Write the structure tokens for this entry.
Amino acid sequence: MNKARRKQLEKVVEVLTAQMEELETIKDEEQEAFDNLPEGIQCTERGETMEENVDELDSIITDLENVIDSINEVIEK
């Protein structure tokens, strides 16, 4: 891979990393909102949905980390 394409991939990694960090912030805010709910409300459909959102965001973040790692492997070749 030539230098120009490596630079392009590095920019993609930068953008994905920034987006991943934003997703982490959103996930943390959702988790905090759930944690601040009274225990009785945490067990309701609303609370369960919030927990599912946190889990799904965590999964998306993990997927993005894997994509970033894969791109970095390509850059290093």
Summary: The first helix runs from residue 3 to 35. The helical segments are 3-35, 39-42, 45-76.
